[in-house]
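Comment thread on ticket #2218

A.B. wrote:
> Attaching the input chain for the structure job we discussed in standup.
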Amino acid sequence: MTSPLKSLVATGTKLWLDSIDPKLVALSKEQGATGATSNPIIVANIIKSGQLDAQIRQLHSDGQGPEDIAWTLTDRLVSDAEKVFAPVYEATHGNDGYVSFEVDPLLEDLKLGPPHKERVARYIELGKKWSKGHPNRMIKVPATPAGIDALEELVAAGVPLNVTLIFSERQYLAARDAVWRGAQRLKDLSRFKSVFSIFVSRLDVYSEEHVPALGTEAQGWVGIVNAKRIWKLNKDFWTSKKLPLDQEMIFASTGTKKPSDPKWKYVAAFAGSDIETNPPETNEAVAQSGQSFTRMIDQWPAESILKAIDQHVDFQKLEEFLMNDGLKKFADPQKSLYELISMKAQQKA
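C.D. wrote:
> Ran it. Output below, let me know if you need it in another format.
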């Protein structure tokens, strides 16, 4: 009998783990995962487990401060995960098998971040730095004004990109067009690869709290409908370009927030195409669910639900609110990571 996760993969979904914990990476590969993503919270959770204590003490004794240690450890963890998925990368000629590396989230800190032009320049500089020598590493850049303005140059430099923190069609279109401009500057498109991470569950949390007029029938559908509409836009655009590699959507934030929802609600909704980055706990729930997944990516809810969403949800307001909230969640974990490393560095073995 096929396992639930393998049945998900069989629909055409690529499964990427939302972690770079070495043990979870190995397990997810066995379960059918073909890639992984990272962020400061993930790195902090690995550090909290104690498995990196010796490395932290050694780096500290070598004279590295908390910031340098954070980036050294992130680089090592991502590099180790890249080795696990390198055979996938080679077998698919660069269409899969990537591990995402998030560049400095503090560039978007509302108080500490530099002016716009400097942010753009830093995104380009760091993207080139951290991707060099890592063919199956994707550089994660947020769909902020500065992030989007850096995309063309990064793509033109041959950097594979994961454009993250996308909540709206407007953001997606701005990011996609910048990526395509960069691609048109490449002499060789054989390894041109980009993905666009659309966040899902946060939209439903937003609509529950801020759009009561939506009504009970349509509540819980905003994230799914928004992501499927953007998926369709993306599929149509890139299909027309006839490129060697797929330029795909990542369905992110697929963990459910409402206790009454099945843990695999969003996993099931997007089955059949592109990429899902599921948190470990979501994968665990799916693995134990007994579910057999079928293609649902191109299935839509009732017309009345679509009309209610279009009538009541102001996506500009939604984007503004979720971006402000998202940037706080983007930058604060990096500060917490530095604090955690500072504390760990002082501890004795």
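A.B. wrote:
> Thanks. Noting for the ticket: The chain has a mean pLDDT of 95.
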